[in-house]
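User: Lactoylglutathione lyase, Bactrocera latifrons:
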Amino acid sequence: NVRWQRYRHHLIVFNMSAKILLSNSIRFWHCARINSAGQIPYGCEIVRTVEEIVRLVHPALNSLKSTQSIRTFAKTQAVKMADSVGLSNEEAAALCKPADAATKDFLFQQTMYRIKDPRKSLPFYTGVLGMTLLVKLDFPEAKFSLYFMGYENPDDVPKDPSERKRWAMTRKATVELTHNWGTENEEKPVYHNGNSDPRGFGHIGILVPDVYAACKRFEEQGVEFVKKPDDGRMKGLAFIKDPDGYWIEIFKANVV
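Assistant: Predicted structure for Lactoylglutathione lyase:
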């Protein structure tokens, strides 16, 4: 039956993973992390189809010493995974509630993340990604500044400071870059991008007319790639990094 097939599949995966771990001395977290970037090292091919299983299992696998203990662990996990499935379309739809009338004028306006050095981030978001600085807000008493970025025509930006602020706060899907003064002087990275343990925030996404043309230009500009368009199993989309290491997906609407 379906449950047995899922159990058998996950058991095979876990047992093969155990063999890889023991025979090749490959730490499982490394395989999973490289997989998320679309680059699979030799010996980790089995991870390609079960990335989420690897993320769940690898901390425990690293603490197990013998083949038998890992096999026992794999059997237990296979049972659990056989019963673990995502939401059906029907369940997802049932969980969604009708919007309350009070939310009629709500608007998704901004995503905020912290940046280390605006002298690096501003040229990237404008010159590389083509965004416009909508407004800059300074808070000297708290020693930080906000830079609101978005895809708006620079000619549409109001000249009056008060009007510019009001206008910027009504634009859709902006990025709020927050700079805490002084972080630019730190030698090491200051912020966590969410794509290594403990995982959390993932990425923002930029819709482009031609992914390959966009990535060719990014490559010429020296942008760091997490995944190029033809890397990994998902073709035609890419991930790049901003100066702080935050991931940015580059995609076309018909690819995702």
